[in-house]
Amino acid sequence: MIFLTVGTQFPFDRFIRAVDNIFDQGLIDEEIFAQIGETSYKPRNFESVASLEKKVFDECFKKASSVMSHAGVGTITVALKNHKPLLVMPRMKRYKEHVNDHQVATAKKFEELGHVLAAYDVDELPEKIKQLSTFTPRKRVSQVQLVAGRIAEFLNGVSIS
Amino acid sequence: MVLSKNIKMKICLAASAGGHLTELLKLADSWQQYEVFYVSTADMVAKKLQQYGPTHVVGECNRKHLLRVILVLVRCIRIILHERPNVIISTGAAVGCIMCFLGKLLGAKVVWIDSIANVERISLSGRMVRHIADLFLVQWPELVEQYSDVEYVGAVI
Which residue from A minimizes the CA distance to B134? Predict the structure, then answer.
């Protein structure tokens, strides 16, 4: 199963519709389950829901052979943690998919580091979807303890009056 | 009077549902000895957060919907007056920004961790909070060269 997820803050129909069309062309031979947010678009080729509780979301992720999503950090994080091949497509401000274009930079950075595949437009999707089935994401070494340590040090120095 | 640092400190942990919250929760080790409460934006994360501490859900808001911002702001004001935290820790976005400014007004310390999603420049919320933050962390070393008073120690993901 391929898990398709786009978060919930804004619709991302451009992406969902493109995947639906690619499915029509017979370029995807796996079942897809999609979380597509509050939108009027109804995919023809796969089951979809508006939103998922975190627990169910995590389960979908574990079951999936690969994942396609917007270039949101939440999804990228879960993909890296579960070592799932992930293809991201950034949301764009000009299509009213987000308040700015920061997802483009996020996608580029994580792509550059070998952690994800990225498609920057619907035209690039078919080729990237093909690559997804054989893509092995590079593991990321977490520095979270360094950051947590810095915050703990700061909190330790706070005096309450 | 300044009390010993062992005195119970209350921390507000504020983050929008999604990536912001994922990043914030990764840092849970830093505040485990303190009393905390959460402020987030969506019901679907409330159940999970309640396992960690008292949780307030204020709804989504962003700069495109001013009325929503006002509604969320009113909810945040009620929360901050009721909870009176000593420190605000946030990874963004708009709701985190609101809680940081409200907290600062009431004398709280502000810790901001700008999301790893911001690669080329700091988020809009972050650029505002930077002026009042007591600790401002970014997650890409390149960003330290662009802004004063920001620190890089690593990325949480």
Answer: A154
